[in-house]
UniProtKB/TrEMBL annotation:
Lineage: Bacteria, Bacillati, Actinomycetota, Actinomycetes, Pseudonocardiales
Record-stated family: Belongs to the enoyl-CoA hydratase/isomerase family.
InterPro entries, A to Z: ClpP/crotonase-like_dom_sf (IPR029045), Enoyl-CoA_hydra/iso (IPR001753), Enoyl-CoA_hydra_C (IPR014748), Enoyl-CoA_Hydratase/Isomerase (IPR051683)
Domain of life: Bacteria
UniProt-listed SUPFAM superfamilies: ClpP/crotonase
Pfam families: ECH_1
NCBIfam families associated with the record: PRK07827.1
Name of the protein in its database record: Enoyl-CoA hydratase family protein
Length: 257
């Protein structure tokens, strides 16, 4: 539809979700939030989708919440109340999510980048936790951002609201890589192919494993992890992977080129 702000497209096992609201720098308006959430839900339940790519049109990935819509509302009427669902969808998606940034991200936009499994940007992309500078708190996004960031950097950047570049974003754990604009799509494709090589159920379970609280010592977790490992070795997916390895072929879940 011509008036939609989020586009959804599936090609070769990859669902590309594109933010297309450049007139307000892809701010998280009510319409964009609704359409983004719907697209993420569709991708999560589509058996044809192996990997999700979250990208954008225009010069800015996402400027955060739509401040025009936030003016004058009470705490209960703020659009930010709907944002946790989107971050949760990205964080817990059974399909790996790759963020592709050809431009800056701010505030809630960074929260979405952090909620993705892989994030790639151009060197010119900039970032800022600008909340404190308008008198608000980066509370919701802290739940996805803080697990990624070096603690010292988090204190500095959350408290100052200073702008930082893609190079530093890689150094502190927000991004996986920063590549020139003419290499951005190739870098995203590299990650997509690597992710799609994994078994769908194994990827979903591994994502859950990465998000769970850590055991205090290895010995505390051996029994539970042994059960999980043995279950997957014996599973239909695991047996197919083992057979494919022995036969020197790709497993049946790998998308065809």
């Amino acid at each position: 539809m011509a008036d939609e702000l989020v586009h959804y497209d599936v090609v070769g096992g990859t669902a590309t979700i594109t933010l297309d609201s450049p007139h307000n720098r892809n701010a998280l308006s009510a319409q964009l939030r609704r359409e983004l959430s719907d697209s993420l839900a569709k991708a999560a339940t589509d058996d044809a989708v192996r990997v999700i790519v979250l990208t954008h049109t225009g010069p800015v990935f996402c400027a955060g919440m739509d401040l025009k819509e936030a003016r004058g509302g009470s705490a209960g009427d703020q659009g930010v109340n709907e944002f946790p669902r989107i971050l949760e969808q990205l964080w817990t998606s059974p399909k790996p999510v790759v963020a592709r940034l050809a431009g800056p991200a701010r505030a809630g936009g960074i929260g979405m980048v952090a909620a993705c499994d892989i994030a790639v940007a151009v060197p010119e992309a900039t970032f800022a936790f600008s909340e404190v500078r308008i008198g608000v708190v980066p509370a919701i996004i802290s739940l996805t951002v803080l697990p990624r960031l070096n603690p010292r950097a988090a204190h500095e950047l959350f408290l100052t609201g200073d702008t930082f570049d893609a190079r530093r974003a890689v150094e502190i754990g927000l991004l996986n890589s920063a590549v020139p604009a003419d290499e951005l799509d190739a870098e995203v494709t590299r990650f997509v192919k690597a992710l799609a090589a994994g078994g769908p159920k194994a990827l979903a379970e591994t994502k859950a494993l990465l998000s769970r609280p850590r055991f205090a010592t290895p010995s505390e977790g051996f029994e539970e992890m042994l059960g999980l490992s043995a279950k997957f070795f014996a599973s239909e997916e695991g047996q197919e992977g083992i057979l494919a390895f022995a036969q020197k072929r790709k497993p049946n879940w790998v998308p065809q080129d």
